[in-house]
Amino acid sequence: MVVRAALLHDITEDTGRLREQFGDEIAAMVEGMIELDRDEAAIAT
After folding, report:
1. Which domain holds residue 6?
2. What CA–CA distance (Å, rounded) separates 17 from 38?
């Protein structure tokens, strides 16, 4: 599941659509990864 979320994270940030296609658990993981990326970007600047 984590691998799926990681791959999908690179493809899209439309978690509403992900939720429809892959379910709540995968969408929540992708949302978490997107948040981590944003946090890392903020720290790097």
Report:
1. 2-44
2. 20
